[in-house]
Amino acid sequence: MTSLTNLTAFLCLVVALLLVWRQSWPGRLRLFVWQSALLAVLTAQIALFSGRRGLFAVAGAFALIKVWGIPRALRRIAAGAPVRPVAPGRSAGIPLLVAGGLVIAAYAIVLPVSRTITLPTSDAIPLTFAMALIGLYLCVTGRDAFGQILGFLTFENGIFGVALVAAYGLPGIVEAGVFLDVLVIVLIMEGLVLRMRREHDSIAVDRLQDLRG
Amino acid sequence: MILLVLLALPPAGAALLVRARGRLAQAAHLATAALTLAAALGLAAAVGRDGQVVALDGLLRADALSAWMVVLVALVGALAALEAPHHVPPAAPRAFYPLFHLFMFTMLLAVTTDDVGLMWVAVEGTTLASVFLVNFEQTRASLEASYKYLIVCSVGIALAFVGTVFVYLTDVHQFGSAAQALRWTTLVRLAPGLPPRVIELAFVFLIVGYGTKAGLVPMHTWLPDAHSEAPAPVSALMSGVLLSVGIYAVLRFKPVVDLAAGPGFARRLLLALGLASMAVAAASLWASTNYKRMLAYSSVEHIGIVCLGIGFGGPWGIAGAVLHIANHALAKSVLFLLSGRIRAAYRSAEIPAVRGLLAAMPVAGAGFLGGMLALMGLPPFGLFVSEVMVFGAGFRGGFAAVAVAGLVFLVVAFGGLLRSLHAILYGVPPAPPAPETKAGTAALVSVVGLALLVLIGLAWPPGLAAALERIAAIVGS
Lengths: 213, 477
Known about the structure:
Distance between the termini of chain A: 55 Å
Strand order of the largest sheet of chain B: 1-2
Mean pLDDT of chain A: 87
Largest sheet of chain A: none
Number of helices of chain B: 20
Number of strands of chain B: 2
Radius of gyration of chain B: 21 Å
Largest sheet of chain B: 2 strands, antiparallel
Number of strands of chain A: 0
Order of helices and strands of chain A: HHHHHHHH
Oligomer: heterodimer
Shape of chain A: globular
Helix content of chain B: over 70%
Low-confidence stretches of chain B: none
Number of helices of chain A: 8
C-alpha cells in the first residue's frame, strides 16, 4: 500500500512541476485535470486500503468538482486569451529551479509533522506539501487571472493531499464546506474575470493598477 | 435555541429579500437587521446567565468571547443596515440586501461555532459573500479592488487551512474521534499534550492566514483598496467587524499554542506583527490623500494595537484588546457610514476636494469630527481607555520597549489623522457640495455610536467588567 500511494502522490507532484514548466493555457489546464484525477485516485486507494468507505464518497465528490466542474469554468475564464503568453524570452528555467527548491523546503518545513505521524501513508506528506507550496508560488507569480487561479487551485489540491495522507481526510462537514468554498471561489472568479475582460480587453493582472497610495 | 434563532434570521431574511422589491425590500431588510440585533442581545443575556450556550450537539457554542463578537457584529450590522437604503438606489441590482445579510450570517457563524474547521469555512464564506458587495458600484477601480480582495484573502485563508489541518493531524492521531478533534473545547483540553513543534508550525500558518483577513502588515495589501471602493455600509462592516473576526480566530488558537508550546512563541509573533502594522499604517496615514483610504489604514493601525494587547497578554492586555475591538468597531463604522454621505455630496473621495465639511454638512460634519476625535484616542471616548489598558499591560508585563515603540507610532498616526481632519473640516471647497438631505439616519447612527463610545469611556455599563474578565479567562486559559 505504502509504495502505491507514494507513487501516486509523487506523480501528483510531477504534474505540479510540469505546470511550472508549461506555458500554453490549454496544456496547463489538461495538466490540472490530470493532477486532480490522480488525487481522486489517491483518495480511492486510501479508501480501499484503510477500509474507510466514506473516503470513496470524498473521491467521487472531488472528481466531480475538480476533474469535471472546475476545469469547465477555467476553460471559460481562459477562452479568448492567447494560447501562449505574448512576452517573449521567458524561459521556465528559473521557475523550475525555484520549484525544486520548494520541494526541498517542503521536506524541511513538515519535518516536525512527519515525525509525529505514523500512518502507512505518512511518507507522502512532504510530497503533497511540496505540491501546495508550488501552487502558492504559481499563484503569487501568475501573470494573468487564469494563471493565478490555477496556482490557487493547485495550492488547494496540495492541502487536500496533505490532509488525506496525514489523517485520511478531514471530518465530513469540514470537507464538504471546503469543496463548496472552492467551487464558489471559482464561480465568483469567473464572474469577475468576465467583467475584467469587458473593461480591459485582457485577463492580464498587470493592467490592474489604478489603485495606489 | 436562541443561538439557532440568531443564525437562522439573516439567511431567512436574505432568502426573503431575493424576491422583495422597493419599499417592501427596505422594510424586510431593516426588520432582519433589527431582529438579528435583538437575537444577539438575547444570546448575550443567556451567556451572561449560564456561562455558555450550546446547540446542535456542541457544533455551535457561544461563550463570553463569542457573545462579545456576536453583539458587535449585530450592532455594527444594524447601524450599517440603517444607512444602507441611503446608499442603494432603488433601481440598483437586487443582490445588495441578500448579500448583506449573507455576509452577516457568515460572520455570526464564524464566531459561534465550536468547530475550528467550520470556523475556517465561515471565515472563507465572509470573503465570498462580500466580494460582489465590494464590486457593487461596478467601476474599474472597484473591480480591481474586488479581484485583489478575492485572490489575496483566498490564498491567505488557505494558509490558515494548512494550519488547521496541522492542528487536526496532531490531535486526531493522539486522541482519536475524528468528529470531535476539531472542536475548540477538545483542542484546549488536549493542548498540554500536543507536540509543541507541530503546534508552533501550525500557528505560523494560522496567524499569517487569519492575519490576512485581519489586515495585518505585510498581508494587508488588499485592505485599503477593498475598504475604500466598497459602498459605505459594506466598508463599515468590513472595517468595523470583519477584521476583528480574523483576530477572533487568532484569539481562539492562542490558548492552544500557549498550553502546548509555552507563552513566548505566540507572543513574539503577535508583538512583531502588531508593531509592523502600526508602523506601516502610521506612515501611510501621512501619505494618503483619499479619506476612505485614510480610514482603511487607520484600521490597520488599530488592529496592530489589538495584536499588541493580545501579545502583552495578562488580564489587562486581553481585556484591553477585546475592548479596543469594540471601540474601534463603533468609531470606524460611524466614520465609514458618514464618509459615504460625504462622498455622495462632494462626488469625490479625495481629501483636497473636500473642504469646509463642518459648514457644508453640519450633521455629517459634526459626526465625522466626533468619530475622528474618538479614533485618535482622545478622552472621553472609549478608545482612550482601551489604549491605556493595552499599553499599561505592556509596561506592567515588562515589555517597555515594545510599548514605547507602539506609543511612538500612535503619536505619528495621530498627527497624520489630525492633518487630514483639519483639511477636511475647514476651508472653502473647490466645487460646492450637494446640500445635505435626509440627515436623520446619519444623525441617529452618529449619536448611537458616539454615545456608546462615551459610555465606555466614562462609566462602564453594568456587566461590561464581568464580561471582559470572563473573556480574559477564556483566552488566558
